[in-house]
Amino acid sequence: MPTPDARTAACADVPADTPAEGDQAAADEEKHHPSPSNRAAARNRTTDIPVLAISGGLLIAFVLAALIAPTATGDAVNTVFTFVARWFGPLWQVLLLATFGVALWLGFSRYGKVRLGGAGARPEYGRFQWVAMIMSTLLAGGGVFFAAGEPVQHYVQTPPFYEGVKSGTQQAANAALSQSFAHWGFLAWAVLGTLASIVMIRGQERGMPLRPRTLLYPLLGERVRHSRLGAAVDIVCVIAVVAGTVGPIGFLGLQVSYGLSKVFGISGGYPVQLGVIVLLTVVAVASVASGIDKGIQFFSRANIWLAVALMAVFLVLGSVGFVLDSFLGGLGQYVSDFVPLALNRGDHQWLGSWTVFFFGWFLGYGPLMSIFVARISKGRTVRDLVVSTAIIPPLATMFWFTVFGGTGIFLEQQHPGTISGPLKSVGMDAAVISMAERLPMGAVVAVALLILTITFVVTTTDSMSYSISAAGTKSGEPTRAVRAFWALLMGAAAAVLILVGDGGITALQSFIVVTAVPVGFIMLPTLWTAPRVAKEMAREQGLLPREPAPTPSSDQQS
Q1: 475 membership: H or E segment, kind and range
Q2: Count of CB atoms within 10 A of residue 467's CB?
Q3: Bigger pLDDT: 508 or 324?
Q4: Exposed, middle or buried: residue 199 (CB in 10 Å: 0-12, 13-18, 19+)?
Q5: Which residues contact 361 (CB under 8 A, 6 or more apart)?
Q6: Is the distance from CB of 483 to CB of 262 less than 8 angstroms?
Q7: CB 246 within 8 A of CB 490
Q8: What are the backbone dihedrals phi and psi of residue 336, each rounded to the nearest 5 degrees, phi first?
Q9: What's phi and psi for 149, nearest 5 deg?
Q10: How far is the CA of 529 from the CAs of 167, 422, 443, 525, 535, in angstroms?
Q11: Residue 133: is its pLDDT beyond 60?
């Protein structure tokens, strides 16, 4: 049965709503010659030193503890992890399912026409650019790392929910993909980019900053801006997303290192792993320095096109028929078992290692991911937001998992042990490279996969350094210096934890779930505050009749 330890060892588009030519020209003029008000805003932006110091200090303290006493740190974190997964896992499962349901209702109800940012707001980015940035940030390294290995793992070791399914059959392949879809599909994407983003954009309309504390603005009002509670909310959300980002940097560094050793015969020891992480960090900092309008856009476009090209290669060189059959079969199984899979509470140990782990990971990303989505989504409608975060990307992700995981299952069927052997002996980082090796032009395919891994990690590190910096900025846009600081700090933390060995990254993976506990309570109110603010915006934009003024009582009339 897989555990967190085992997994670590494993471990030119012009849309209809593009701004008009005059508007775009004005925007370009503003970039090169900012207005006095924007220049003043840039001067007035201030970093929240306590939030920066406490969140950064806690990360450094965790890394030092793992370096000085790795066994004790790992044992302590895993003890808390077991408790958290058992008692908070059910809440997260219900929360993610409810978030998806409310998001769908908002998107396809009369509130779907509400324009985020106000009736006059227009999108800053074309649709392809916008969706590419969302997909590259959310799918990111995790999707690359787990896409091949997780379906194969569920294929060779049937998940408890599908106990009784005969191994080695198409039904077993469908069940394996369905379980993977339950982890990476609609629920994961909905909690990362829908309700919280709506609340965040509304708060910004009302003068609130793009910080996690703004998620509580509909409940607590203006006082959350300067309260200690607001600072605590920002700190716990920053810690959660830093833990969730350092992990992928670390285990994707392992994946690239393993790939280099297999393809080029380069030793996969710590010096190579460190070199890979340094390269990832340097490129991420360079992307940060270029700004959102250049770095993230460039890498997100590159990610999407390279990912599409690699999927096409795997389909042609593998078995397109088996993959398509498995996608339809797995998707049908997933839809059929959608609610029972989401709420399954059968095997607590297995759930803690898989479903609850992933749900806690995505939930921890939720507040800061909503900052990034809010930053790039003003001018879109609520329906646009729901469709482009909770429907299209999950379907694309599920197909991505089927292309890689399905090809791995196909190769495993043809030659048992081909993929499952390296998966068991080395870990998840070996699955996709072992699969590429079995295909024609395997070395070229493996190199392309390594490049894609790097670009996905760069995009995630860049976007999350933006969101973390925004969470620690009192007003205005976060400075590039602070964003670069977080990118460097996360890269350094990953390098140190890999030096500790499997125990360091394992402890961090478990810590991800622990940090999701307070974040879950921060995200919970969006289930009712997002519909409430959508209703307010609908009235303001004339999509609903305004509420009539209260009628005076008879006593008042007399």
Answers
A1: strand 473-475
A2: 29
A3: 324
A4: buried
A5: 142, 244, 512, 513, 516
A6: no
A7: yes
A8: -65, -35
A9: -75, -40
A10: 46, 47, 51, 6, 10
A11: yes
Integer Cα distance of 468 and 243 in angstroms: 12
Comparing CA positions, the residue from 23, 12, 112 lying closest to residue 388 is: 112
**pLDDT tens, 264-321?**
777 767 788 888 888 888 888 888 877 666 777 777 788 888 888 989 999 988 889 9
The string over 302-331, giving b where at least 16 C-beta atoms fall within 10 Å of a residue's C-beta and e elsewhere, is: bbbebbeebbebbbebbbeebbebbbebbb
Position 66 pLDDT exceeds 80: yes
d(CA 159, CA 85): 18
How many Cα atoms occupy the beta-carbon half-sphere of 402 within 13 Å? 31
DSSP secondary-structure letter at 379? Answer: T
Place of tokens 């509304």: 202
Q: How far apart, in Å, are the Cα atoms of 424 and each of 9, 277, 415, 427?
A: 9, 24, 15, 6
Which helix (H) or strand (E) segment holds residue 47: the answer is: strand 46-47
Q: pLDDT, tens digit, for every residue of 9-59?
A: 333 333 334 344 344 444 444 444 444 434 444 444 578 888 889 998 988
Lookup result for tokens 């992307």: 287
Contact 304, 132 (CB under 8 A): yes
Does the structure show a pLDDT above 50 at 416? yes
DSSP sequence for 75-87: HHHHHHHHHHHHH
Q: Judging by beta carbons within 10 Å of its beta carbon (0-12, 13-18, 19+), is residue 450 exposed, middle or buried?
A: buried
Sort 431 into a burial class: Cβ within 10 Å, 0-12 / 13-18 / 19+.
Answer: buried
pLDDT of res. 140:
59
Q: Which two tokens stand for residue 352?
A: 């803690």
> Both tokens of residue 255?
């994946």
How far, in Å, CA of 433 to CA of 441, rounded? Answer: 12
- Token digits for 408? 């791995």
Handedness of CA 358, 363, 365, 371 (dihedral sign): positive
